[in-house]
Structure prediction request, 601 residues.
Amino acid sequence: MAVSMAFIVVYDLREPMKPTVYSIAPFVIIALFLGACAPSGTVPNTVPNITMPKSETIAPTVKSEKHMIAAANPLAANAGLEMLRAGGSAVDAAIAAQMVLGLVEPQSSGIGGGGFMLSFNSANGEIAAWDGRETAPDGATPDMFLNLDGKPKPFSHARLGGLSVGVPGLLAMLEEVHAEQGKLPWAKLFQPAIGLAENGFMVSPRLAKMIAGTSDLNTFTPTKNYFFNEDGTPLKAGQNLTNKKLAATYKTIAEQGAKAFYLGSIGYDIGQTVREASVNPGTITSTDMVAYRANKRDPVCGPYRTMLVCGMGPPSSGGIATLQILGMVQKFDLQNTKPGNLQAAHLISEASKLAFADRAAYIGDPRFVPWPEGLIAPDYLKSRAGQINPAAASGKAAPGMPGMTGHNKLGISDESHGVSTTHLSVIDSDGNAVAMTSSIESAFGSRMMVRGFLLNNQLTDFSFRAEIDGAPVANQVGPRRRPRSSMAPTLVFDADGNTVAAIGSPGGSSIIGYVAQAIVALFDWGLSPGEALSMGHFLNRGGAIELEIDSNAEILKKPLEDMGHEVKLKKTTSGLHFVGMKDGGLVGAADPRREGVVLGD
Prediction:
C-alpha cells in the first residue's frame, strides 16, 4: 500500500512522528513511512570502485548548545546571534540577518527581491512554507521578452532595466511570519543593519570581485555612484562603505511596517524607477505594489530513509525536485557505498535528470497551473527509479506521466539563470527552526537602485516563450504570476522529531543538486557537516553531468564518460548553510566557497 506524501500539510513533532491534523488532508502513518524507505537496489559489480578523495579544504563543523545561525556574511550572522541572545526566535534572527545581508551582500538579496522560508514552530509542531516570491505586474504580457521577430531576447539584455523587475515580496513574507513566530519587536530587528548602513562596513573580497567583474553595473547612475569611486574605479575590498539612503529606508519600515514599503512613497518610487528606466522600461505601478500578498503554503514533504524531508512547493521547483531525487535514490543502497563514489554520482545524476524533466514540464505558479501532486508519490518515484540503469547512462530524459492528463501537453521549458542568491539557517533555544533562501536573481539584479537597495530581475525566471511546439508552457509570463524558482530551503526531521537539518544554498537551478547531494552526504555517508558541504559537486540539470572544476570531483570525469555520460567541468556557485540537532546539541557548517560563517552559544 502506498500513500502520496504530496498531501502532507502539517506534522506535530512534539510527539515522535505523530501527525496532527491542522487541515483536511490524509497523513502517512509511521509504518508506511518506514516501509517506503527500504532500499531495493544494490551496487552492481560492473561499476568500478572509484571514490573521490577527501576535499583539500574542509569547512569547520561548529558546535553549540543553545542556539545557532549560519549565514553568508559574518556581519549578518552576528546580527542574527544578537537577536538569539536577546531571547528572540529563529524567525527574529533570520529577519535581522537578512536585513544586514541586503546591505553587505547586495548582489545576492535584499528588500528589492523575494524569497522562500521553511519554518518549524516547536510550540505547536507546525511545519510551514512561506512564499515571498515576486509577482509580474498587471502590465506583463506573454511576449514581453521576445524581439520583434518573435525570438527570445538575449538574457543579458532582458535582465537590464525595468522590464525584468517583479513586485518585491521579501518584506511582506517576513512581516507575515514575524506576526506568527516573532518574539522581539519588529523595529529591533532592523537596528544592526541600520547601524552598519549609517556607520559603514568593510567591502568584502567577494563583493569587490563581483563589482569589478560586472560589466554593466555602471549603466544606471544611482548604482554607479554607489558601487564605484568618484574616479570611476570599482570599490575595493576593505573600503568602508556607508548607505545612508538604505538606513533611512530601514528606519521607515522599522517604524511603520511593510505597509510603508508597499502602500507608501517607497512603493511609488519603485514603480516610477521601473517605468522611467532608460533601458527596458517596465510597467510596475502603485496598484501592483498595493496588490502584493505573501502566501503561507503547505510544505512538500516526503520520506528519506527513516527521516522526513520538507521543502518549498510551487512556485519553487526546489522542494519537489529535491524530494524526487531523494525518493529515487533511496531505492538503492547508497548507505553501504563510500562517500563520493562513482556509483553514487551516477545514480544521483540519473535521478536528477528525471526530476529536471518533470520540473521543466509541470512546475509554474500553482494559482494558474496546478502541479500534479503525484510527482512525489512513492509509487511514482519507484517507477521512475526503475528507469535508472545502475551500470550505464540513459539518454535524454522525458517527463513522466504522474496521473494528471491535463498536463500532458505542456511545452517543455527550462529557463533558470539566477545564481546570485543567499541562504541562511537558524535553530533557536526553543527548538524553532528556519531555512530561508532569498534572491534578487542575477548578481546585482536589474542593476537599478531605489532608496539604497537594488531591484530584482526575477521576471527573467519566466519562460521567454509562452508556447513551445504549439503547447502552452507552465512557466509562462502573465499578470500577477510568480516565476518558477529553484530555491530549496529544506528542513529534515528524524524519527524522534528532531530537526537534524535546516539547509539550503544559492546557485540557480544547481541549488537542487547541491541540497540533494548534501543530504546524501550527511545521512547516508555519515559525513560531518563541514565535510558534506566541502565535497566537490556533481549534478545533472537534464543534460550533461556537471563536475566541479578544480575539486576532488574531477576524478570521476573519465569513469563517468566510460559509463556513457556526457561530462562537463564547471565552476560552481554553491553557498550551502547548514544547522542541525545532534546528540542533544547543535552542529553547523558554512560552505567554504563563499564568505559564510556559523555562530552559536
